[in-house]
Write a structure and sequence with these properties.
Helix content: 40-55%
CATH class of the largest domain: Alpha Beta
Oligomer: single chain
Strand order of the largest sheet: 3-2-1-4-5
Largest sheet: 5 strands, mixed
Order of helices and strands: HHHHHHHHEEEHEHEHH
Radius of gyration: 32 Å
Strand content: 5-15%
CATH architecture of the largest domain: 2-Layer Sandwich
CATH topology of the largest domain: Nucleotidyltransferase, domain 5
Number of strands: 5
Distance between the termini: 78 Å
Shape: elongated
Structural class: alpha/beta
Number of helices: 12
């Protein structure tokens, strides 16, 4: 079989190299490199291997170049008109994915690619293939994830906004002789929390559980400014655990004349025992600021508890509660050291 030879000439070769080097289109640059490789005498197989393409792609491009010259290297799909995945299409897709299918007339509560293709066709007039929709979803950074369960706040929007604004104003204008903390409780279970983990193909990791569960509880308070965490441990999550934490706060923060505690509406925070404790001489330095119901995202200590579970309790292999709690306290101690160091460096 006669071998098809491409001869560019020195000046054309230099221009092709410069174009391949400066082109902002990687696919176009690769086509120029194919021709340059063939011009240097490499075979179709060697060129395909060097550039990571199929041999048929190299042969097809060689034929187009011999028929049409340099114009044959340009992507002929540009004659098809504007790309379907233009900015307006992607912006519309972003808004649709962020919404619920039920807002667009579907009974199904979760999106499928077929449903997205249909809705985007109605909104933009452009019909795309499922594979094109997959590319579009990747371009807008969409992912399949697990939704977070939430409970709707029973307060009116105005009342909720007003309370959150009051707390934000307090923290923004906190006097130098006062301190503010976020307070919350966390459950520690000997039966490990099961969480996502990387696994190789064909493997499903196992997490050994002790069978009979044990529980411990921590009540914690995190300094709004420094991030330092104070905590107390208990066998029961009740008002006494909360009162012990309040006592720890008054002992730890001797200097400030007022300690502002931002917390949720959990029942143990508002009992008669707590009210009596707040009437004591030390208790009068404490002021409780309750968040609107079901607003955990506004209690910053929640993130610290999530990190605790991610780094210690999730998928753990501890055989006893004492071993698990030792790991919990070690993690929290290191956490405090890190936060206080960061605060000192920032100051």
């Amino acid at each position: 079989m006669r071998r098809i030879v491409i001869c560019l000439g020195s000046s054309c070769n230099r221009r092709f190299r410069k174009t391949a080097r400066q082109s902002k289109d990687p696919k176009l640059a690769r086509r120029y490199l194919m021709i340059l490789n063939l011009d240097e005498g490499r075979s179709v197989a060697d060129t395909a291997c060097a550039l990571g393409v199929s041999e048929s792609t190299v042969r097809r491009l060689r034929r187009r170049f011999l028929e049409h010259g340099e114009a044959g290297l340009v992507d002929r799909r540009e004659d098809n008109g504007d790309t379907k995945l233009h900015e307006q299409y992607l912006a519309t897709l972003y808004a649709v994915v962020a919404s619920s299918p039920r807002e667009h007339g579907f009974v199904r509560p979760t999106w499928t690619r077929e449903m997205l293709v249909e809705v985007l066709h109605r909104k933009t007039g452009r019909q795309v293939h499922l594979s094109t929709m997959s590319r579009a979803l990747a371009q807008i950074g969409a992912r399949r994830g697990r939704p977070k369960p939430t409970v709707q706040c029973p307060w009116s929007k105005a009342a909720k906004t007003r309370r959150l604004r009051q707390i934000a104003t307090l923290l923004a204008n906190l006097p130098a002789d006062e301190v503010a903390v976020y307070e919350d409780e966390v459950d520690i279970h000997l039966n490990p929390k099961i969480g996502l983990d990387w696994m190789v193909s064909g493997q499903q990791k196992e997490v050994l559980t002790p069978g009979k569960n044990e529980k411990r509880y921590l009540a914690g308070a995190q300094n709004v400014q420094t991030g330092e965490l104070l905590w107390v441990e208990g066998d029961k999550k009740n008002s006494l655990l909360f009162i012990r934490l309040l006592w720890e706060l008054t002992q730890h923060y001797r200097g400030p004349k007022k300690i502002h505690v931002i917390l949720d509406n959990y029942s143990i925070h508002g009992t008669q025992q707590v009210e009596l404790s707040l009437e004591s001489p030390e208790g009068r330095r404490l002021q409780l600021h309750f968040l609107p119901p079901y607003c955990p995202d506004h209690n910053k200590i929640e993130r610290t508890w999530q990190d605790l579970h991610a780094n210690v309790t999730r998928n753990h292999a501890c055989e006893s509660m004492d071993e698990l709690m030792a790991n919990v306290f070690r993690y929290l101690g290191n956490y405090n050291n890190q936060k206080l160091t960061e605060y000192a460096l920032a100051a």
